[in-house]
Request: fold
Amino acid sequence: MAVDTLGHLLTLHVTPADEQDREQVARLAEKVQEVTDESVRLACVNQGYTGGGPCGGRSRARSAPRGHEAARGEEGFVLLPRRWVIERSFGWMACFRRLARDYERLPETLAGLHYLAFAIIMLGRLAELLVQSA
Reply:
């Protein structure tokens, strides 16, 4: 899942359970660049994605984002400025019971449910803004 700095969904890539996420991050990076018209230059990624790949510092693709590690602190709890953005988005997804279990047969179904959940979240926020402005 890729989100912007506000935690809103940009795109996602559903992978089978038997594939490594690190090997599939190239497809997600391509989708992010496609959706954002190749405007992303820096991506905050988890520690597992910071090798020499599309989000690592040694990417060959000119338009691929450069990875910036947003990993956990070594000395107990350390607040990292950008790590909470994706964690908050995962928290929003936890409100949707259907997404709590991975029972979907098709990856397209699971991706569609994620897009639907984010659409519901955004419509709720829009309704709050409309009520406040009225």
